[in-house]
Design goal:
By secondary structure, the chain is an alpha+beta fold. The chain has four helices and three strands, in the order E-E-E-H-H-H-H. The longest helix has 22 residues. It starts with 7 loop residues before the first strand and ends in a 22-residue tail after the last helix.
């Protein structure tokens, strides 16, 4: 595998590739593999489908640990684009569940604000990327 020729490789669920930055320097970009994101969305879809008739509080209680574990594992590197997609996807699924419970179509954008969904219902909202910062060098005495 030669990353200098534009090839990438996967390791522990991450996709590693060489990329040229704005300043012209080469650096390594590592993101969650698409396969892992698909596995997560399938798992969450299964929970939403299995608990369709249950109250949203129960569904959120079931999906929050799954989301928290997945996000904490992939919180290193360059995962923010993937996290943005997942946050939007999960919020839409919750909105669809809420509207389905009321026998309505749509997402309920005018009924519920995003803040209400995260603050009142308690949907997981800690999609933060942790950056590897080099340790400070010791100063000579």
């Amino acid at each position: 595998m030669d990353t200098r020729k534009g090839e990438s490789f996967g390791f522990l669920g991450f996709d590693f590739r060489r990329q040229k930055g704005r300043s012209g320097k080469w650096w390594v970009k590592y993101t969650p593999k698409m396969k892992k994101r698909r596995e997560l969305t399938r798992k969450l879809k299964d929970i939403f489908k299995r608990f369709r008739s249950q109250p949203i509080s129960r569904v959120i209680h079931l999906i929050n640990p799954v989301l928290r574990g997945w996000v904490n594992y992939f919180a290193w590197g360059h995962s923010s684009t993937c996290f943005r997609y997942l946050r939007s996807w999960v919020e839409k699924k919750v909105r669809r569940h809420l509207m389905g419970a009321r026998g309505r179509r749509g997402f309920g954008w005018k009924r519920w604000s995003s803040r209400w969904i995260y603050d009142v219902l308690g949907l997981f909202d800690a999609y933060r990327v942790k950056w590897n910062r080099p340790l400070a060098k010791a100063r000579p005495t």
